[in-house]
Amino acid sequence: MSEIENHAHHRPLLQVDGVSLVYRTAVQEVRATHQVSFDVHEADRFVLLGASGCGKSSLLKAIAGFIPPTEGEIRLEGRAVQGPGPDRIVVFQEFDQLPPWKTVRENVMFPLLASGQLGRREARERAEVYLEKVGLSRFADAHPHTLSGGMKQRVAIARALAMQPRVLLMDEPFAALDALTRRRMQEELLALWDDVRFTLVFVTHSIEEALVVGNRIGLLSPHPGRVRAELNSQGWSLDRQGEAGFQAAVQRIHRLLFEDAGTAPSGGVTPVRAPVIPLQERRHA
Amino acid sequence: MSTHSLSATRPVPPLRAEYERELAPLSHVQPARALPWHTRLRTHAGARQALILIALAALWEAAARWQHNDLLWPTFTATLRALAEGLGSGELLVKAAVSLRTLLEGYALGVLAAFAFTALATASRWGRDLLGTLTAMFNPLPAIALLPLALLWFGLGQASLLFVLVHAVLWAVALNTLAGFQSVPDTLRMAGRNYGLTGVRFVVQILLPAALPSVLSGLKIGWAFAWRTLIAAELVFGATSGQGGLGWYIYQNRNELYTDRVFAGLVLVILIGLAVEGLVFQTLERLTVRRWGQQRG
């Protein structure tokens, strides 16, 4: 692969270095990823893209510190990640990431207070700022169960951004939303990035979403997850999805993801696999 | 060939003209409107419950009058009169106070012990197995069955009552709290750990509020168990240090064949239960789990 890029003057913010993740169930070990490496730089919008079973969500959880790598290391600013911490805030796909007993404003204040980063008054002020950014100031006193799915995800994003983490981790944050809301959220996320310039690692299984949201895309092959390619996205906006260049990029990624690398003879486009993981398929000694 | 004949029988939707229209603002249609008072009353749980109670009282009165035997079954009005007399003379108030004080002490002890056990069970797998085994052993054991043993160990007094009360409360509350903790979604747990919450802060700020519906239902069940255990225990061994509770009042009046007072005592037991359920627990639920959308109203 032509992966020789010289970043000698520019040290990556986040380094995933030869990371293998292994789940242990009662009867067997399942390898989710195998020796995955990639670098994420300051203000990157790095997208991890792959089909079900490629270990992209596991990788994100490992970066967040919830899963320790069995092999390799994850470094943030040169220091190895040891466990969960408020310098890496996760926005999950599920709506129940918001404690239902806290109002929208309290939800945004919660990590600021829990991590001891700010006092109550400063936390409140910071919460107001970020709720304003996601357009939810009017709902600051509402409880999460009264909000729509898109609004809940906006609260989760405001809560994550208010922490001003070194890296913002998003695990298919828009997958549970309807298509129209998802489009708007993607636009809003890009606008927020333009405003705040946070560093983002974004997991998705949608090629279109990857091209729109990311500036760099890591493609993962499944069972176990390995890096198939890293591509640059040309800054496609949502309204350019019809263009030939965009379609060509989609086709290229589709080919990379679904034509098995080397091993199987390529017989046209393979259909998307069933999400059932053939557990015995690969067991590395 | 056959495709042609197939397409002839297959229905095809008609092609219709497209249209676009400008939508005028809806100034005369209100998006929300207040419900009339009778509809709101019907949907009010308190109103429905009051109606049910009135119907039951009427049924009681009619059945007792038809039976016409004051010694076996006094009427609703006679019971009310006895209740008013008992409350007026202060006797029932004193008895109720004695019962309630013991009850609250036993309940508080039981709940504290339950939380200690649950904390142990959340902290380690051994703790969970310990709680599971103990609950399986002791939860089916009626508290009152332990009373002879309690009397043997602690004598005829407050301590014996507290012992059986703790037994009545502990297992139900611990079981429900643990079940609640175990059903807290993973995402919420990860969110909490993401912000650096661990140990007691994690339990207090994430697990306990997230499991509150189960914890509250455990507290309710524990309360009912405690109340019925206490009355039963008082019926069995009556007065402690010269002061009897409501159970003793019921027992004494049965011996003297004041059946209306027996009923008055029972009614007071029920009333206190209703009051605690309606005032304490429902208020707690309204302020917490219902407001947070964890439980339907």
Please, what is the CATH homologous superfamily of chain B?
Answer: MetI-like
Number of helices of chain B: 13
Structural domain tally of chain B: 1
Question: What can be said about the biggest beta sheet of chain B?
Answer: none
Detail the poorly predicted runs of chain B. none
How big a fraction of the residues of chain A is strand?
Answer: 15-25%
Distance between the termini of chain A: 26 Å
Largest interface: A-B, 26 and 22 residues
Mean pLDDT of chain A: 84
DSSP strand content of chain B: under 5%
The gyration radius over C-alpha positions of chain B equals 29 Å
How helix-rich are the residues of chain B, as a percent range?
Answer: over 70%
**What class, by secondary structure content of chain B?**
mainly alpha
Q: What Rg of chain A do the Cα atoms give?
A: 19 Å
Please estimate the helix content of chain A: 25-40%
What CATH calls the topology of chain B is: MetI-like fold
Shape of chain A: globular
What's the structural blueprint in terms of helices and strands?
The complex is a heterodimer of chains A (285) and B (297).
Chain A (H helix, E strand, L loop, with lengths): L13 E11 L4 E12 L4 E5 L6 H9 L6 E6 L2 E2 L7 E4 L12 H11 L5 H14 L15 H14 L4 E5 L7 H18 L3 E5 L2 H7 L2 E6 L4 E7 L11 H15 L27
Parallel strand pairs in A: 3-8, 3-9, 6-7, 7-8
Antiparallel strand pairs in A: 1-2, 1-4, 4-5, 9-10
Helix pairs in contact in A: 2-3, 2-4, 3-4
Chain B lengths: L1 H8 L27 H6 L2 H23 L8 H14 L1 H33 L1 H14 L8 H8 L3 H25 L3 H9 L4 H12 L1 H26 L8 H10 L3 H32 L7
Helix pairs in contact in B: 4-13, 5-6, 5-8, 5-11, 5-12, 6-8, 7-8, 8-11, 9-10, 11-12, 11-13, 12-13
